[in-house]
């Protein structure tokens, strides 16, 4: 870990320590301005550059999106790259956020891709290293086979680096079309997923 990766280590971890009542009030007040909001789960990942700063920037950019409020941020996990030879890439920092939003899925996807592009995400190589992934894992209870945005994410149920942090922020949650999230998570190997107790993300206030 570089010193820059540790830049946010002094910030409180909202999934371990109680969220201050003032923050809860601000989130509730913001949610009151959203008409019929939907819950969405978004997975974040980075294995290039300042990984922690990039993921925190993505959280902040999502919170700055009109019609969207970030309501929960998971701990940070360091994970081995998926689908590539061992030691061919650096490890990832991964996290999951839960949001309330009035944006339809297509608009949420556009915003996710815009955030990726802001961090110069490239798509030249499948499973290649990337500055930032912003993946919509689920959107309320929507099940869709739309090739542009399949919901829930078609491979998230196989990925411990998504399921482990998701369960942290939504322990009673369901995986749309697959049942209780805890049961889905218990079926995957999490040996390559390591919680980073020394660094945290900050819930926007």
Explain this structure.
Helices cover 27% and strands 20% of the residues. The protein has 5 helices and 8 strands. The longest helix is centred in the middle third of the chain and has 14 residues, at 105-118. By secondary structure, the chain is of the alpha+beta class. Strands 1, 2, 3, 4, 5 and 8 form a 6-stranded antiparallel β-sheet that branches. A two-stranded antiparallel sheet has the order 6-7. It has helices at residues 21-32, 51-63, 105-118, 160-169, 181-186; strands at 38-46, 68-73, 77-79, 92-101, 133-139, 174-175, 179-180, 193-195. It is globular. It starts with 20 loop residues before the first helix and ends in a 10-residue tail after the last strand. A hairpin with a 3-residue loop joins strand 6 and strand 7.
Strand content: 15-25%
The first-to-last residue Cα distance is: 27 Å
* Main sheet makeup: 6 strands, antiparallel
Tell me the number of strands: 8
The helix-and-strand class reads: alpha+beta
Q: Average pLDDT across residues?
A: 83
């Amino acid at each position: 870990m570089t010193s820059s990766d540790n830049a946010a280590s002094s910030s409180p971890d909202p999934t371990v320590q109680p969220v201050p009542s003032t923050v809860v009030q601000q989130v509730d007040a913001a949610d009151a301005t959203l008409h019929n909001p939907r819950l969405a789960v978004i997975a974040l990942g980075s294995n290039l550059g300042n990984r922690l700063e990039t993921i925190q920037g993505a959280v902040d950019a999502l919170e700055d999106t009109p019609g969207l409020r970030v309501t929960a941020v998971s701990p940070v996990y360091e994970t081995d790259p998926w689908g590539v030879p061992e030691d061919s890439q650096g490890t990832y920092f991964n996290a999951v956020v839960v949001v309330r939003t009035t944006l339809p899925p297509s608009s949420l996807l556009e915003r996710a891709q815009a955030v990726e592009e802001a961090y110069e995400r490239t798509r030249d190589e499948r499973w290649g290293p990337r500055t930032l992934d912003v993946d919509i894992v689920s959107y309320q209870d929507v099940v869709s086979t739309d090739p542009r945005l399949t919901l829930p994410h078609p491979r998230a149920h196989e990925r411990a680096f998504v399921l482990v942090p998701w369960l942290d922020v939504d322990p009673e949650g369901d995986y749309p079309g697959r049942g209780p999230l805890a049961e889905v998570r218990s079926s995957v190997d999490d040996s390559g997923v390591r919680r980073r107790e020394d660094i945290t993300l900050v819930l926007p206030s």
